[in-house]
């Protein structure tokens, strides 16, 4: 066997992995772009995440927001991720996390997520998804629940606060919306 075959196979496998991870995952609705650490900090600070919160990260990726919310803020954090490879990464990270009792990982579509107990919802999604998600949030979140979004605002909602430097928007579900009002 040619001595170059094994290294070539390894390079092709690694290249295939990265192509899938960053491009192929578009088939699940979004590509992968990690949330910068400073942005995660800003999201958690603006939303005032604390130990009494249940934070749900819709489209959690590899869990930057989820693990930090559990580790630094003591929150119960729920990662919702549909893409299989990122879901697997989340499961492995949870398994080895000292905060695993406060972290849940669910493989499901973000539009099917149960948000009844969420006090904070974290988002880093594309504008088209944000527009579709708005009605889901209004129908399922309780009045006063906080929604914190990185990069893309929620169409039709007015932010309570913003971090313009990091592109973070904080919203609160206003009275007249939410499940008790029948959503909008």
Brief summary of the model shown:
With 184 residues, this protein is of the alpha/beta class. 35% of the residues lie in helices and 17% in strands.
Descriptors:
184 residues, alpha/beta, Rossmann fold, 2 domains, seven-stranded mixed sheet, 5 helices, elongated
What characterizes the major β-sheet?
Answer: 7 strands, mixed
Distance between the termini: 66 Å
The total number of structural domains is: 2
Fourth CATH level, the homologous superfamily of the largest domain: Vaccinia Virus protein VP39
What amount of the residues lies in strands?
15-25%
CATH C-level class of the largest domain: Alpha Beta
Report mean pLDDT, rounded to a whole number: 88
Strand order of the largest sheet: 3-2-1-4-5-7-6
The tally of helices reads: 5
Question: What is the CATH architecture assignment of the largest domain?
Answer: 3-Layer(aba) Sandwich
The secondary-structure class comes to alpha/beta
**Rg value:** 18 Å
How much helicity do the residues have?
25-40%
The tally of beta strands, per DSSP, is 7
Remind me, CATH topology of the largest domain? Rossmann fold
Show unreliable segments: 180-184
| Pattern of helices and strands | HHEHEHEEHEEE
Structural shape: elongated
């Amino acid at each position: 066997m040619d001595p170059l075959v094994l290294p070539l196979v390894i390079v092709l496998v690694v290249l295939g992995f990265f192509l899938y991870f960053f491009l192929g995952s578009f088939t699940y609705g979004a590509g992968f772009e990690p949330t910068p650490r400073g942005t995660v900090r800003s999201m958690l600070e603006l939303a005032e995440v604390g130990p009494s919160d249940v934070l749900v990260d819709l489209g959690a990726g590899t869990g930057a927001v989820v693990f930090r919310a559990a580790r630094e803020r003591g929150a119960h954090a729920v990662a919702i991720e549909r893409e299989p490879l990122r879901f697997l990464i989340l499961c492995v990270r949870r398994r080895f996390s000292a905060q695993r009792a406060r972290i849940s990982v669910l493989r499901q579509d973000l539009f099917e997520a149960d948000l009844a107990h969420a006090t904070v919802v974290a988002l880093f999604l594309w504008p088209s998804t944000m527009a579709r998600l708005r009605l889901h949030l209004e129908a399922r979140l309780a009045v006063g629940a906080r929604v914190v979004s990185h990069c893309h605002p929620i169409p039709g909602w007015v932010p309570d606060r913003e971090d313009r430097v990091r592109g973070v928007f904080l919203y609160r579900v206003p009275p007249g919306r939410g499940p008790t009002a029948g959503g909008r």
